[in-house]
Amino acid sequence: MPFVKVYEFSGERAGEMELPAAIFDVPVHMPAIHQVVVAHLANCRQGTHSTKTRGDVSGGGKKPWRQKHTGRARQGSTRSPIWVHGGVAHGPHPRDYHQRINKKVRQLALKSVLSDKVRDDLMSVVKGFDTIDKPSTKAIKNLFTALGLEKKTLVIYHNNAFNVTRSVRNLPGAKCINVASINVYDILNAKNLIVTPEVVAKIEEVYSR
After folding, report:
1. Using CB atoms within 10 A of its CB, is residue 75 exposed (0-12), middle (13-18) or buried (19+)?
2. What does the alpha-carbon distance between residue 191 and residue 173 come to, in Å, rounded to a whole number?
3. Least enclosed by CB within 10 Å: which of 4, 28, 46, 189?
4. What does pLDDT average to over the chain?
5. Which residues on neighbouring strands pair with residue 12, listed in sequence order?
């Protein structure tokens, strides 16, 4: 069974926590991770990019010059893509980039990245976040310093805590998300992972089915 270190909010070591092997000790499945990350990034795209074709640009109804005997190439419109102020040929238009991922593939990818963090000792359980009674970036910074976290850190919290979210977001590279929004991309994008005991319980409840 995998174990993870547990700390108090002050940074003091508070023992270890046993994790369910079915979630935190599975082989890394790279194809599933790749598929989920590609879909996540695609789903983040708005797809609102748009360009005007020669039929959308105003003007151009008059033929620039007569067809023959001018010594110049024949032209039918000043809104041709080869003209300045003309339309765009083969430009992007609004589209939907959304990709659907099978539920089992998403779960396998999430279990893979969580297991990888645990095996590399990059995941920590911290108790006592509720002691923050107001937004305090200094308190979170002191916690990161005590745990030796210098690079990107992702904090996964068990509810929509205003004080915790506001405290974390001011630190460069740090991010706080709710456990309901847990995703493969954010975990991979972060070097270190901090969770609460309630988050571990919620993950076990949802993904042990």
Report:
1. middle
2. 9
3. 46
4. 92
5. none
Residues 129, 161 contacting (CB under 8 angstroms): yes
Q: Map out the domains of the chain with their CATH numbers.
A: 3-45+99-207 (3.40.1370.10), 47-96 (no CATH)
Q: Is the pLDDT of residue 163 over 90?
A: no
Question: In percent, how much of the chain has pLDDT > 90?
Answer: 76
Q: Which amino acid is at 146?
A: A
Q: What is the pLDDT of residues 123-146, one digit of tens each?
A: 999 998 888 888 888 999 999 999
Of 91, 87, 92, 90, the C-alpha closest to 45 is 92
The per-residue pLDDT for 209 is: 66
List CB contacts of 185: < 8 A, sequence separation 6 or more.
36, 37, 40, 41
Non-local CB neighbours of 21 within 8 Å, separated by 6+ positions: 1, 2
Q: Which residues contact 63 (CB under 8 A, 6 or more apart)?
A: 75, 76, 77
Considering only CA atoms, which of 195, 163, 162 is closest in space to residue 179?
195
Structure tokens at 112: 């893979």
Q: Is the pLDDT of residue 105 over 90?
A: yes
* pTM for this prediction: 0.84
The 8-class DSSP code of residue 88 comes to -
Residues 6+ positions from 51 with CB-CB distance below 8 Å: 87, 88, 91, 92, 93
- Mapping DSSP to helix (H, G, I), strand (E, B) and coil, where does residue 27 land? coil
pLDDT above 70: percentage of residues in the chain: 100
